[in-house]
């Protein structure tokens, strides 16, 4: 409340005088608030008439503050300088004031003495010089923040303000304090950013004007050791990097100088790098300076990347790359002790991408095969050197941080890129590293870390390969390489590491196994499944770490999904483990559910319905024996296990390709008879849990969801199976379930009804459907627009598949009423479903002529005017991004009810929108709309209407 009152005072016509009054106070914080008040006033008022007076008044206050206590008042002075900047930017077009000229004249004036022409010559002391530098800095920083700037302002800045800045750097020399020197570097940094903006948004070009500034920066590197200051150098590094990144063109005349400065023998750059690599105290003390120097080196190298890669055979270029490699290999643990290697990741990625993207041009450059071979050899040599560095850098250590984990991911992404260029030999190189580590008898910490790093990189590369390319070529080339290290007892060696379950290498091996589906499903890799599953089951059953068990269960799930037929021999093991998990409430629920899916998917792959039936039956018996005594979380997990069985037990869509004709006939015959009553057992389980169980299960929306998944799983099956139920059975269950369900469960039931209508709508029992729809509709939450929209979504599907059913239903008028109510609520995320319902209803594409006439009667007699009213009001209030959703219904109404909608619109258009149409505009709009006859042109007319009544300019869109 107080803040609002203060802001109202600041924005009032007296705001400027209030600011001056506050600035005259003794308290410095009050003075700052006065300067801030003037800022608010200037931002909310036209200052054209008071520009000159206000500018001079503020200058007088600045002079007073300088003389009173320059250091103590510096934060107030900076705010006042920003006000001068704001005045200038707001009024430059109507005034010929040169703000830098005026500032320097006022702060340096002495009685009766004429002012020198040069601004620098006017300034008498460091304080005055600092004020000018600060103003030159603040001015361009404030200009950059302005959203849209006129080219004329950029022209004025270039011709006047910039010239003052250039003159300052030309004349000031180097006999200034370190403080002033650092301020000049900050000023130059701001100007570099401004110049890049100005060149982008105007025709101003600074290429020929930047020499003095570049030379000023370069001269800092030639100072004697005693004159060097790392704080200043840090700023120089930053400014040079900004120039390279934003306006590299200005560096062309200095290209060779910068190259020598950074990379020549005994140059500043090389000596700085040697210090970084050899002096741990220096690295610890000057981490920011090192980081900015590395950014400078990387920016310079990136700028010349095409030239570097094309000339990699040149010894000078190769030497530069060796310097970059040595810097990449800065000693210490990455992220924790050094950040240089992290900074270089992006560069080495761009370096690699340049070879990939520039490949065709390089082929044209190198005509003879011998040169190409030497070129590729040199390229590979560099990348292998880089790979060796990062291979060591990603070695894990105890208690690794989140940032280091992300670093490992970034390194792995880089290795993936290396693989895309170097292909299988690079993959083989990493696999050889695994084999070497496995062959070392004494598994020291270093050996284990190297082994883990190699396995991690193989996992990431393999996972990427098979995410984008599941080709047999990759399988053929990679399988022998993976076999190479599996054959050296990979799993046994890792299990032999003391406390291996507590080490990162266990997680890495689990992830690697999950990515090797191509390997396990062929004859070479399948021989390692016993060791693999022994390792996985050991972790699942005995690991003290929940996260490790979860990863192991996910790995089992993934292998079973991709290599199910190879796992048939393991069914007894899987069965034993699963039954134990079903009995044990302490097992993690997700692990239990994954194992259920894995077991049934492998059992299905036997293509033996008798075996599958026996296994599912046994699981159901175990689940049914446990449900009665289970607590809520355990009971829900057991229901989820039935759901997972239904997913895993479903045949692939192209069943003729999956089963032979004989297998198909056997499956049909078995599941038609269903001798073990598996389907009844499933239904009994669902009924016991969700209809006859304790309240916490009957009312659980998760249980309802899982039961509906089971019932839904067989709807698209072409042949009978363990989860294909008669439609009447499904409908009767849903009727019972809907009677005891909350609103969230009703949404799930509605979704299943939609699937039933889509898959079996033609042969559904109308009496059961009516009872189900009535039960669901009566139990939905009519006060919840989301619930109404979901109901309408279900009714839309029924209208589309079985229109006669709804039109004859006595409660359909209530459905329409709910739809109108929901439309009037104008809840954005529900509108698309609501509009689709009305559009489907009015179009009634599959309705008979009699049914379409019935719809026409309902629209004209009962709902038409209300529907059009709510539709227009909602349309006008909709955001621009949502108005496309309304067009189909508008077009349908115009096409089918041209005369009626004309009258309905005439009655309401004068009342909708921020700027409602008057009588003449209404008539013109209606005529434009009706003449389109509901064709696509209607959308343009409606869009223009939306823009007009919302007071929006058409040109904005």
TrEMBL record:
GO biological process per UniProt: protein import into nucleus
Claim: Acyltransferase is one of the keywords in the record: no
Subcellular location: Nucleus
Entry annotated with the keyword Nucleus: yes
GO annotation, cellular component aspect: cytoplasm; nucleus
InterPro entries reported in the protein's UniProt record: ARM-like, ARM-type_fold, Importin_beta-like_NTR
Gene3D superfamilies assigned to the protein according to its UniProt record, in alphabetical order: Leucine-rich Repeat Variant (1.25.10.10)
Keywords: Nucleus, Transport
Family, similarity comment: Belongs to the importin beta family.
Protein's UniProt name: Uncharacterized protein
Source organism of this protein record: Candida tropicalis (strain ATCC MYA-3404 / T1) (Yeast)
């Amino acid at each position: 409340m107080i803040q609002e009152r203060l802001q109202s005072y600041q924005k009032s016509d007296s705001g400027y005088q209030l600011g001056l009054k506050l600035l005259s106070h003794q308290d410095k914080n009050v003075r700052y608030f006065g300067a801030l008040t003037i800022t608010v006033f200037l931002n909310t008022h036209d200052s054209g008439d008071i520009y000159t007076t206000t500018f001079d008044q503020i200058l007088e206050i600045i002079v007073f503050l300088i003389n009173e206590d320059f250091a103590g008042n510096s934060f107030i002075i900076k705010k006042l300088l920003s006000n001068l900047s704001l005045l200038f930017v707001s009024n430059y077009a109507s005034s010929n004031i040169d703000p830098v000229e005026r500032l320097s004249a006022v702060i340096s004036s002495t009685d009766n003495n004429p002012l020198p022409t040069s601004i620098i010559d006017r300034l008498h002391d460091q304080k005055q010089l600092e004020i000018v530098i600060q103003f030159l800095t603040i001015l361009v920083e404030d200009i950059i923040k302005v959203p849209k700037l006129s080219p004329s302002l950029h022209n004025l800045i270039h011709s006047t303000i910039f010239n003052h800045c250039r003159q300052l750097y030309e004349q000031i020399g180097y006999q200034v304090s370190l403080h002033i020197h650092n301020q000049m570097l900050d000023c130059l940094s701001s100007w570099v950013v401004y110049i890049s903006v100005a060149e982008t948004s105007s025709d101003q070009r600074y290429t020929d004007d930047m020499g003095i500034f570049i030379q000023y920066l370069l001269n800092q590197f030639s100072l004697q050791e005693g004159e060097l200051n790392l704080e200043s150098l840090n700023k120089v590094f930053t400014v040079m990097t900004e120039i390279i990144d934003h306006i590299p063109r200005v560096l062309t005349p200095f290209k060779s100088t910068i190259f020598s400065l950074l990379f020549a023998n005994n140059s500043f750059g090389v000596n700085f790098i040697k210090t970084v690599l050899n002096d741990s105290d220096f690295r610890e003390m000057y981490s920011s300076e090192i980081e900015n120097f590395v950014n400078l080196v990387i920016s310079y190298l990136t700028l010349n990347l095409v030239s570097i890669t094309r000339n990699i055979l040149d010894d000078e270029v190769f030497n530069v790359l060796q310097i970059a490699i040595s810097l990449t290999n800065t000693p210490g643990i990455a992220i924790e002790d050094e950040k240089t290697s992290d900074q270089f990741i992006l560069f080495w990625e761009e370096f690699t991408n340049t070879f990939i993207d520039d490949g065709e041009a390089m082929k044209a450059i190198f005509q003879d095969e011998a040169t190409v071979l030497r070129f590729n050899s040199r390229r590979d040599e560099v990348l292998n050197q880089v790979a060796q560095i990062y291979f060591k850098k990603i070695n894990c250590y105890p208690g690794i941080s989140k940032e280091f984990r992300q670093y490992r991911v970034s390194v792995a992404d880089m290795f993936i890129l290396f693989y895309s260029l170097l292909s299988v030999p690079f993959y083989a190189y990493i696999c050889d590293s695994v084999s070497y580590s496995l062959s070392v008898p004494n598994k020291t910490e270093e050996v284990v870390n190297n082994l883990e790093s190699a396995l991690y990189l193989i996992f990431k590369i393999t996972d990427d390969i098979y995410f984008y390319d599941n080709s047999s070529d990759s399988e053929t080339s990679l399988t022998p390489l993976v076999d190479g290290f599996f054959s050296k007892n990979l799993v046994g060696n890792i299990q032999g590491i003391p406390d291996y379950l507590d080490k990162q290498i266990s997680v890495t091996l689990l992830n690697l196994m999950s990515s090797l589906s191509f390997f396990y499903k062929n004859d070479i890799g399948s021989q390692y499944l016993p060791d693999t599953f022994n390792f996985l089951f050991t972790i699942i059953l005995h690991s003290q770490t929940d996260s490790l068990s979860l990863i192991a269960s996910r790995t089992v799930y993934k292998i079973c999904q991709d290599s199910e037929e190879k796992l048939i021999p393991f069914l007894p093991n899987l069965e034993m483990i699963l039954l134990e998990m079903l009995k044990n409430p302490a097992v993690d629920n997700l692990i239990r559910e994954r194992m259920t899916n894995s077991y049934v998917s492998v059992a299905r792959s036997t293509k033996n319905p008798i075996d599958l039936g026996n296994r599912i039956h046994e699981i159901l018996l175990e689940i049914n024996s446990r449900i009665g005594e289970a607590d809520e979380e355990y009971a829900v997990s057991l229901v989820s296990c039935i759901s997972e069985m239904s997913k895993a037990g479903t045949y692939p869509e192209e069943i003729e390709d999956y089963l032979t004709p004989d297998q198909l006939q056997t499956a049909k015959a078995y599941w038609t008879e269903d001798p073990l009553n598996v389907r009844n057992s499933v239904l009994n389980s669902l009924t016991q849990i969700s209809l006859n169980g304790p309240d916490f299960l009957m009312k659980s929306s998760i249980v309802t969801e899982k039961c509906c998944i089971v019932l839904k799983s067989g709807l698209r099956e072409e042949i009978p199976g363990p989860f294909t139920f008669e439609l009447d059975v499904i409908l009767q269950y849903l009727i019972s379930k809907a009677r005891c369900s909350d609103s969230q469960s009703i949404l799930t039931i509605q979704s299943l009804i939609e699937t039933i209508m889509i898959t079996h709508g033609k042969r559904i029992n109308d009496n059961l459907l009516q009872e189900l729809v009535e039960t669901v509709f009566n139990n939905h939450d009519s006060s919840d627009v989301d619930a109404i929209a979901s109901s309408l979504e279900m009714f839309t599907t029924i209208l589309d598949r079985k229109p006669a059913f709804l039109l004859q239903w006595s409660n359909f008028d209530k459905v329409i009423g709910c739809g109108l109510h929901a439309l009037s609520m104008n809840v954005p995320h529900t509108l698309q479903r609501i509009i689709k319902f009305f559009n489907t209803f009015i179009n009634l594409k599959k309705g008979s002529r009699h049914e379409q006439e019935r719809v026409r009667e309902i629209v004209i007699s009962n709902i038409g005017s209300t529907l059009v009213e709510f539709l227009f009001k909602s349309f006008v209030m909709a955001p621009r991004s949502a108005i496309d959703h309304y067009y189909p219904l508008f077009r349908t109404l115009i096409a089918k009810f041209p005369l009626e909608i004309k009258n309905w619109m005439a009655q309401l258009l004068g009342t909708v929108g921020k700027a409602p149409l008057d009588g003449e505009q209404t008539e013109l709009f209606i005529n434009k709309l009706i003449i389109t006859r509901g064709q696509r042109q209607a959308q343009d007319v409606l869009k223009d209407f939306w823009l007009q009544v919302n007071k929006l300019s058409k040109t904005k869109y």
